[in-house]
Amino acid sequence: MKKKLVKYEHNIKLSTKQMINTANDFFNVIKKRRTVRDYDPATDVPIEIVENAIKSAATAPSGANQQPWHYVLVSNQNLKNKIRIAAEDEEKEFYSRRAPDEWLNALEHIGTDQNKPHLENAPFLIIIFAERYSIDKNGNKLKNYYVSESVGIATGILLSSLHMSGLVTLTHTPSPMKFLSKILKRPKNESPYLIIATGYPSKNATVPIITKKSPSEFLTKYL
Predict the structure, then answer these.
(1) Could you give the CA distance from residue 2 to residue 115 in angstroms, rounded to a whole number?
(2) Is the distance from CB of 54 to CB of 187 less than 8 angstroms?
(3) pLDDT tens digits, 161-201
(4) How far apart are the C-alpha atoms of 200 and 203, rounded to whole Å?
(5) Which architecture characterizes domain 43-201 according to CATH?
């Protein structure tokens, strides 16, 4: 099969100084991103902000350009309540029986537990599903490649876009997550990947004091 190619037009033309400034500006904004658990349920969030963030995520590179992701956007209060109840049931079992002490000790300074009010209080929940395989027009299964990597890259873009737009987020991975497929009526080829709660923070929102690794700890350079 012959490849179809078009000339790449790089429409962001910046001087070296502008490129450095742009990179610095992005870092100075994105480094302020925090996981927030306290949301303002009373202030309306324009849905266009969230939809554009999801569209931005869908521009991510993916294995063989198969784009193995599906997003479900939930603001319906009844659905959010169902998701919270199911998630807390799984989390209660996890925290009381399945979670190893090492994991619980690692979480202690963050203060998480089985109670997940953000799943109801956040104006929007974005549930990301990974498509383990695709289905063509004739109903045949098509293998997708590098699914976790592709969806992970897209998720990073989504979180960055929401933050840059002025919203806060919380990533949540209840274990297991199969209840999401049932509640949201998703097909068998999709596996729940992540819940992202998003909206405006409440006036009294707090976050734990944490530190990030320095570049010397996570960056190796061969120049």
Answers:
(1) 54
(2) no
(3) 999 999 999 999 988 899 999 999 999 999 999 999 999 99
(4) 9
(5) 3-Layer(aba) Sandwich (3.40)
